[in-house]
Amino acid sequence: MLSDLIRQNLDQNSEKTKPFKSLKAKVLIEARDIQTSVGLEFKQGELTISGNTMIQPNLHIIADSTTVLDLCLLKIKFGLPYFFDANGFKVLKKLLTRQLIIRGMLRHFSTLVKLTELFSVI
């Protein structure tokens, strides 16, 4: 599902090519409610997706599956995730209440912004 989302976003919006080509990171996404993990390894224009967990991801996103989908609905304004609409506020609230955990968020903030921009369907 994630590979289809990324492919569609790249095909439909050429502005997403720049963050995709600049990403060099390992990301682990865990949807605990459905007991699924997916590893994404970005290598400046290449993406490898695996069901295996990575030893040392730069970003480790832990949430329920609905919240993972909510991340795809975040708007990007001025190059940053926009938290001042209904969906953005919902994601921010989940971050503050630890229903959404993003390990490595501060250390790899630019990676998180590029990933959000790449995933965003809006």
CATH topology: Nonspecific Lipid-transfer Protein, Chain A
- Per DSSP, the total helix count is 5
Mean pLDDT: 89
Rg on CA atoms, Å: 13 Å
Helix content: 25-40%
Structural domain count: 1
Q: Which superfamily, in CATH terms, is the homologous superfamily?
A: SCP2 sterol-binding domain
Query: Roughly how many Å apart are the termini?
Result: 17 Å
Report the biggest beta sheet as strand number plus sense, adding barrel if it closes.
5 strands, mixed
Walkthrough of the structure:
By secondary structure, this protein is of the alpha+beta class. The protein has one domain (2-119): 2-Layer Sandwich (Nonspecific Lipid-transfer Protein, Chain A), CATH 3.30.1050.10. It contains five helices and seven strands. A five-stranded mixed sheet has the order 3-2-1-4-7. A hairpin with a 2-residue loop joins strand 5 and strand 6 (80-82). The protein is globular.
